[in-house]
Amino acid sequence: VPGYFDRRQLTHEPVQELHNGGWTAYAEKSSRAQIIANSFAELRPARDFGLEPLLNVHDRAYVEFLRSAYEEWRATGRDGDAIGYTWPVVRRRRLDFDRIDAKLGLYSYDAATPIAEGTWEASYWSAQTALSALSVILDGEAAASFALCRPPGHHSGPDYCGGYCYLNNAAIAAEQARRSGRRVAILDIDYHHGNGTQDIFYSDPDVMFVSIHADPVTDYPFFWGHADERGAGPGEGKTLNLPLPRGTDFQAYYSALAEALDAVRSHGADLFVLSFGADTFEEDPISHFRLRRDDYRAIGERIAAIGLPVLVVMEGGYAVDALGHNVEALLSGLED
Ligand code: SP5
Ligand code: ZN
User: Fold this and answer.
1) For residue range 76-130, what is the model confidence (pLDDT) as tens digits?
2) Atom 7, ligand 1: residue with shortest CA distance
3) What residue ranges do the domains of the chain occupy?
4) From the CA of 98, how far away is ligand 2's center (Å)?
């Protein structure tokens, strides 16, 4: 499976995030990508597809905010990373905001997603990495490809960042594929619900979104990913959420996977986008499922069995030492 990556994705290195009522070390660190990259004999560099595919998914004002937020933050005399602290949730009005603190509240939904010096550059190249990996599939050169995206993307929506995500890499690739005539299904198997991806395609009848994740009753992002969220308007029935309880092992997980793949088949998809988070791993430090390394191989094999071209887009996974092995296991299953 050809893999894509750009070293500029490593320039994003926020120092801390708000968690358990205090500041802790940022979990989505660049060594995650480095260790996955090290498990590949060869990774191809990303090509530059420009801003247009990003703007087909994200609002222009949001993209401009991402580009300039760090500079604006520093211009107000602050040190360190830009992070919001006031959110316009209560009786909000859409105003034209100028103050960076207001914009951070407007364009984010949590305090786990700071904007550091390299955030725009890394996010831009993370999205280009997804588009590059997609292009080998669209060109018919490979039946499967791997985008080593980092920062991840699935919590980012049309005009917001959150959950370590700034640009929605999987959604950007899916939208690009749809525009070249493909019928796309996205399966998200990160531990956390992919609320941003769901939001982007919620009313869309063409792109199906299926997610297996920790029940949002107990886990982040709490407000989305419940089983009764099934899409809206013409997209009704094209969103499928399969929440599972903390402690889920591979046996229960595999049943959900079978249900998810049945839905993909019924959509008549001809391109499969896998949002792959390895934070379902038993040793993940921030998550609570019990998958093991060999289970990722079995997941890959099961997905390969449906016989569609597969674009794998990296999302979360924080057991850094095991990340390379877990990604390798998934991709080796896909190859068989
Ligand atoms: C892409 C992805 O997996 N995002 C997950 C975001 C989850 N954020 C909420 C949990 C925060 C836990 N932070 C622990 C920090 C340890 N230093
Ligand atoms: Zn996750």
Assistant:
1) 999 999 999 999 887 777 777 899 999 999 999 999 899 999 999 999 999 999 9
2) 163
3) 3-53+116-335
4) 32
Confidence at residue 104, expressed as pLDDT on a 0 to 100 scale: 96
Kindly write down the DSSP assignment for every residue of 294-312, as one continuous string: HHHHHHHHHHHTT---EEE
- Nearest residue to 200 via CA among 244, 147, 239: 239
Assess contact for 302 and 329: CB atoms under 8 A: no
322: left (phi over 0), alpha (psi -120 to 50) or beta: alpha
Residues flanking ligand 1, CB < 6 Å: 17, 19, 24-25, 27, 112, 152, 155, 163-165, 190, 192, 220, 277, 279, 286, 315-316
22-25 and 16-19 strand pairing: antiparallel
Partners of residue 209 on adjacent β-strands: 186, 239
Structural tokens at position 101: 């603190």
User: Does the pTM of the predicted model rise above 0.95?
Assistant: yes
Q: How many residues does this entry show for the chain?
A: 336
CATH number of 3-53+116-335: 3.40.800.20
Told to judge if 12 belongs to the known catalytic residues of this protein, a careful annotator would answer no
Amino acid identity of residue 298, one-letter, is A
DSSP 291: B
pLDDT digits (tens, 9 = 90+) for 240-285: 999 999 999 999 999 999 999 999 999 999 999 999 999 999 999 9
